[in-house]
Amino acid sequence: MSTPFTSANPSSAAVPPGALIKDSSDQAFKADVIDASLEQPVLVDFWAPWCGPCRALTPALEKVVNEKAGAMRLIKINIDENPQIAGQLGIQSIPAVFAFAGGRPVDGFMGAMPEGEVRRFAEKVIAGAPAPQAAEGSLEAQITAALAAADEALGGGDLGRAAQIYGMVVQHQPDHAQALVGLAKVYLAAGEVEQAKATLDMVPEAERKGESYNSTAQSIRLLTEAADLSETASLQAAVDADPDNHQARYDLALALNAEGKRVEAAECLVAIFKRDRTWNEDGARKKLLEFFDAWGPKDPATNKGRRMLSAALFS
Fold first, then answer.
1. How far apart are the first and last CA of the chain?
2. Alpha-carbon gap, residue 288 to 294, rounded angstroms
3. Which portions of the chain are predicted below pLDDT 70?
4. Which of 46, 127, 150, 190 has its CA 20 to 30 A from that of 222?
5. At residue 286, what are phi and psi to the nearest 5 degrees?
6. Could you tell me if residue 140 is left (phi over 0), alpha (psi between -120 and 50 degrees) or otherwise beta?
7. Under a CB-based contact definition with an 8 Å cutoff, are residues 95 and 48 in contact?
8. What letters, b where the CB count within 10 A reaches 16 and e where it falls short, cover 126-159?
């Protein structure tokens, strides 16, 4: 059973054990976490009943929060029952702990942590939290501060923290261009090019401008191009190492055709035909004819390919 918050204060004479700990939900997240963190820091523990490390971490979190006697609160969210916020934050492994202060995420960690480390983490969050009266700024000011923290984390190589903060901004404003670009940069740094592209595609058309967006878009294009080149390069290397590796040459022809390198693709298939006309039941010649049909009779590559094939047939 969840326990309601009390109006505890660090200077209170006595704080009942467990009074600062509460089970919450996706629907109550704003009130229990965002709004509550304007008064004092809030730790959010994303967990699930089947998670062994969660069962090890949660008691340490509860103990440390109760020790702090009102200096911070703990919110526990079962992701099996409340998957929305966890999904928006991109949480892929648990336990995951987020620290909020002044209405925004300020720190976090993933995985189990010894009690002493949990205590040091909590003390760091408390020490860095703004005074309650200083946390009354506008949402825009809070987002600006959050993005600055995320940019700093990204620049320092802390991809997990950067992703958490950018994700929280996107959760508040799904079309926030700067946060989406930042999140795309995190995915790029993690080597997840497709996810980076999907995230950058969420930036509104009118906001697709500026150095940060353009550089990120160009990085995605270059990495995508490099991935294609590395595939053809590896196939070419296989052919160079063994000219009778007809399957590698056949696959190379398909890859070259996908890149628009039609003449080179035709050359590969003709080379197979010259070496072994019966390979794969005349597969090289049949595939070349498919290419001709796809390219059309007027394409220069079709004309050149037909000449090469004719020469091979009657040589």
1. 85
2. 10
3. 1-19, 131-139, 222, 225-230, 315
4. 150
5. -65, -40
6. alpha
7. no
8. beebbeeeebeeeeeebbebbbebbbebbeeebe
The pLDDT assigned to 87 comes to 79
DSSP single-letter state for residue 129: P
Lookup: tokens for 225: 């191009």
Cβ-contact 200, 185 below 8 angstroms? no
Considering 54, 74, 79, 101, which one is annotated as catalytic?
A: 54
Q: Nearest CA to 284 among 298, 300, 296, 267?
A: 267
How far is it, in rounded angstroms, from Cα 262 to Cα 283? 17
Q: For 74, phi and psi rounded to 5 degrees?
A: -125, 125
Catalytic annotation on 51?
yes
Is beta strand 96-101 parallel, antiparallel or unpaired with respect to 104-110?
Answer: antiparallel
Query: Among 8, 38, 44, 51, which one carries the catalytic annotation?
Result: 51
Comparing CA positions, the residue from 186, 204, 184 lying closest to residue 196 is 184
Query: If you search the block for the tokens 């702090």, which residue do you land on?
Result: 68
Structure tokens at 192: 């997840």
Is 268 marked active-site? no
> 39 is written with which tokens?
């008064």
Write the single-letter amino acid at 38.
L
- Give the Å distances, CA to CA, from 170 to 147, 194, 256: 11, 19, 39
Q: Where are the alpha helices (DSSP H) in 18-91?
A: 29, 52-67, 83-88
Residue with tokens 């390069």, as numbered in its chain:
233
SS3 content of the chain, % helix, strand, coil (to 5): 60, 10, 30
- Distance of alpha carbon 29 from alpha carbon 33, whole angstroms: 5
The residues, any chain, with a CB within 8 Å of residue 157's CB and separated by 6 or more, are 189
Residue type, 186: V
pLDDT tens for 230-285 read: 688 889 999 999 999 999 999 999 888 888 899 999 999 999 999 999 999 999 99
